[in-house]
Design brief:
It is found in: Cell outer membrane. Helices cover about 5% and strands about 45% of the residues.
């Protein structure tokens, strides 16, 4: 028994010793959980990234909408099958979109280092197309115009859709903004410094408003901004011209009657990139509103007169643009009411008037008492040239504006409008109107035109960050042609070979939207 007792006591002592050693290895107190902390340095919604001194904010929106009698979402029936006024034209287009943005900021000895990223995921209903190549409605196929981003949509079969949008499990991804800001510099894809702060939208949801610049989807740039205090800033920027800041440089040797009636006065003979657009901006931002003056220089660089380099080429010509913008706040009509106005003049830089989402070709059909149907057509260019000649720069000017009134904290209405004019030089008119493409024209040939737009939008916000809106837009194309023209079949829009009356055209659209911001 003594032996057994000694063995038990020894074993117990050994276990206590081991247990004590293990207990000594454990921390005396568990480490506190590091909770996410609110960052108050940069406004509401920012949090510190755990383990760092960087603040981050996540945001975005989800949007559902339908556009009635429109050229795709946000747009008007200006060209393609959208403006054909026949069985190829859509009566509606529907879209769902999710936006995600990420904003990070870190305080440093050089000031705040900021990164910003904004991307969208979009699903849009498909669009019908037609080349007239079939015997039945289900056999039309081909290019069907432009989507909201300005890219071509193609498809085949009766229910044509562009590549991914419109497919059951399809959709599209877009990167709007991705930039770094450091020590006064902005590097990456951001809104152009030329733009007014409201970009394309002085009061509207409609995308194709003319009368000024607007880079809703951003443009790649390298910018320095100086802050002089008291709300006065100035910026100088070099920005990519190829993405959104060039329209057409037409070589009139490529003109055809069918092309002209589609709003193209020749082949678009853009050359490779040589120089970015150079932009300067000065802004005064005060309690009463703001004033901004912007200027831009744009290099027009083309390819060749003919199919190869031995045919020669015109020399480059620099175009330019100037824009003034004014915002008036605290007006006596009501709290939060605002007036936004801008005006622009361009010479060889037309995209600074016809912004990136605005149409640069117009081909609109209507009724006629003098011919098979009527047509109004027009086109926008940066320059025009003919064989052996130099560049003839195209001049434009225009304005846009809106007045927004708040009826209550839940309702507001905006009245908005825009107008733009395009003027071709005498030499350019001679090249265009002297082409064989106008051989069947009986009447006046003049490629100058005006486009006017007016609209009204009403928004209802029943709860914070949830808004329902209805946006009605009317457009008038004031083209300067008159008489009639006979054309071969316009197969892309299923129009027959016939004589068409040249006539001004009108169109309207309605955009209904629900949007939840977060």
């Amino acid at each position: 028994m003594k032996v057994v007792k000694s063995l038990l006591l020894g074993t117990a002592a050994g276990l206590i010793a081991v247990g004590g050693a293990q207990a000594a290895d454990l921390p005396v107190k568990a480490k506190a959980v590091e909770y996410v902390k609110i960052c108050t340095l940069y406004g509401a919604g920012f949090y510190y990234i755990p383990g760092s001194d960087t603040c981050i904010k996540l945001g975005g929106y989800l949007r559902a909408e339908v556009a009635l009698n429109a050229g795709g979402n946000y747009s008007a029936q200006y060209n393609g099958v959208f403006a054909a006024n026949n069985r190829l034209t859509n009566y509606y287009s529907m879209r769902a979109r999710e936006d995600l943005n990420i904003d990070t900021r870190t305080a440093t000895e050089y000031g705040v280092v900021r990164t910003y990223f904004d991307a969208v995921f979009t699903w849009t209903t498909g669009n019908y197309g037609g080349t007239g190549s079939g015997t039945g409605a289900t056999q039309y196929s081909g290019t069907i115009g432009l989507n909201a981003a300005g890219t071509g949509l193609t498809g085949s079969g009766g229910g044509n859709v562009n590549g991914t949008d419109g497919n059951l499990s399809g959709g599209a991804l877009g990167v709007y903004y991705a930039f770094i800001q450091f020590a006064g510099f902005t590097m990456g894809k951001a809104v152009s410094q030329f733009d007014a702060p409201w970009i394309n939208y002085p009061g509207n949801n409609f995308d194709q408003l003319v009368g000024g610049s607007g880079t809703t989807n951003g443009v790649t740039q390298f910018t320095y901004t100086a802050d002089f205090g008291q709300g006065v800033t100035a910026a100088f920027s070099a920005q990519d011209q190829t993405q959104v800041f060039q329209t057409n440089i037409w070589n009139t040797a490529g003109m055809s009657t069918t092309g002209v009636l589609g709003g193209a006065y020749g082949s678009n003979d853009l050359g490779g990139t040589r120089a970015p657009d150079l932009v300067g901006m000065v802004r005064v931002d005060q309690a009463w509103g703001l004033f901004q003056a912007s200027v831009a220089a744009h290099d027009n660089h083309v390819g060749y007169y003919g199919a190869s380099e031995v045919t020669g080429h015109p020399e480059d010509k620099w175009g330019w643009a100037v824009q003034l913008a004014l915002q008036i706040k605290n007006i006596p009509t009501g709290a939060g009411d605002v007036i936004n106005l801008s005006g622009v003049y361009t010479d060889g830089a037309s995209r600074y008037n016809f912004q990136e989402l605005a149409a640069t070709s117009y081909s609109m059909f209507g009724s006629s008492n003098a011919a098979y149907q009527s047509i109004g057509f027009a086109g926008v260019s940066d320059a025009v040239f003919g064989p052996g000649g130099g560049l003839e720069l195209t001049k434009t000017y225009g304005f846009r504006g809106a007045y927004t009134h708040n009826w209550s904290p839940y309702w507001n209405t905006a009245l908005y409008g825009a107008w733009a004019a395009v003027n071709y030089s005498g030499t350019a008119k001679g090249l265009i109107c002297g082409s064989a493409a106008f051989a069947t024209l009986t009447g006046t040939c003049n490629p100058d035109f005006n486009i006017g737009q007016v609209g009204v939008i009403t928004r209802w916000t029943p709860v914070k960050n949830l808004t329902f809106s209805a946006d009605f837009t009317y457009s008038h194309l004031d083209q300067k042609y008159s008489g009639v023209i006979t054309t071969p079949a316009l197969t892309g829009v299923a129009k027959p070979a016939a004589t068409y009356e040249l006539k001004d055209q009108d169109t309207y659209s309605l955009l209904l939207r629900a949007q939840r911001n977060w």
